[in-house]
Write a structure and sequence with these properties.
Length: about 325
């Protein structure tokens, strides 16, 4: 009997909102006619201004660092001024591009959803491009994830300039940000190691879809067998995106993800190499089903942790759990 742990304690999940994730089959967000597509947003002008400001500051710093204008520009300014401008402008530009990528991904998803016919009897067929065998969740966000990580680490690097400021309060804040940066670096290292191991996981759904009050059955498939050091930890969780208060400066409200239910099982791995992991979860019937095609989405995920020598293997899969028909 596999031990089961359940929790309904609500806690935040640090993940991008579903409405901003690129769906399979959606066109590239930075495709041609970008300016025209931005016209449908009230924040289009704001993004363009931010991109222009970031580019102008970065070019100013670059001109004062290298090139034919360097010596003339340095006559009345210290060289570090231009290095700082180059760093600040580059980070500002990266952060704005990441925000723009999230907005455009949401627009692409909405256009795909509006083009499809609606079906109340089988909403899962139109809610997401479900397949019997699927790759990990967020796998389509590789480029955006790298862009976001670089932008965030660059921003933390700029914050560390304040170490020279007097007072312990600012230093304490910087320590917190630096700890976040270390977590991102470690997570990035884990992803690189996982890629080098050529694991390339996928999940094969035996129940597609699964319904509230029933079972979710699947099999984790690993392209390369793994030598494991303990039981596999599998977690089924229900997540809700919720809109927070608007930002006082931009007036844009942010979406945050919250886990409202978790069910964790530890699956014995045996002594041989691990290549497949059977997954079975009992789904409570008093929780909401998946609804992806809206700004405040509700969705289910299966998160897996496999203990290995070195960084553990981790993967997350979007799970097809829906409310019963009728």
């Amino acid at each position: 009997m596999i031990p089961v742990q359940e929790s309904r304690e609500r806690h935040q999940l640090f993940a991008p909102p579903r409405s901003a994730l690129t769906m399979e089959g959606a066109p590239s967000v930075f495709r041609p006619r970008l300016i025209r597509r931005l016209g449908g947003y009230g924040v289009a002008g704001l993004f363009l201004v931010f991109l222009g400001v970031g580019l102008a500051i970065a070019l100013l710093g670059l001109a004062g660092t290298v090139g034919p204008w360097r010596d003339g520009m340095r006559e009345n300014n210290h060289p570090s001024t231009f290095l700082g401008a180059l760093a600040f402008g580059s980070v500002f530009l990266l952060v704005t591009l990441r925000m723009l990528q999230l907005v455009l991904a949401g627009q692409n998803n909405q256009s795909l959803f509006e083009e499809k016919p609606k079906s109340r009897k089988q909403p899962w067929l139109l809610d997401h491009p479900w397949k019997p065998e699927m790759k990990p969740d967020y796998s389509g966000e590789a480029g955006g994830s790298v862009l976001g990580r670089i932008a965030f680490l660059g921003l933390i690097g700029l914050f560390n300039i304040a170490w020279s400021a007097p007072g312990l309060f600012f230093k304490a804040i910087l320590v917190v940000f630096d700890l976040f940066a270390l977590l991102i670096v470690y997570d990035s290292f884990q992803k690189i190691v996982q890629t080098l191991r050529h694991v390339q996981p996928s999940v094969r759904w035996a129940t597609l879809p699964a319904f509230l009050g029933g079972e979710l059955q699947a099999t984790l498939l690993l392209q390369r067998a793994l030598h494991v050091r303990g039981p596999v930890r599998a977690t089924l969780r229900c997540v809700q995106d919720e809109e927070g208060p608007p930002d006082p400066e931009s007036g844009i409200s942010q979406i945050q993800a919250f886990v409202i239910y978790e069910q964790t099982r530890e699956i014995p791995s045996g002594s041989e190499k691990l290549r497949e992991v059977p997954l079975i979860f009992d789904i409570p019937k008093d929780l909401p089903g998946t609804r992806l095609q809206r700004r405040e989405a509700t969705y289910w995920q299966v998160a897996l942790e496999i203990p290995l020598l070195g960084p553990d293997f981790e993967a997350v899969f979007l799970a097809p759990v829906y409310a019963p028909r009728g």
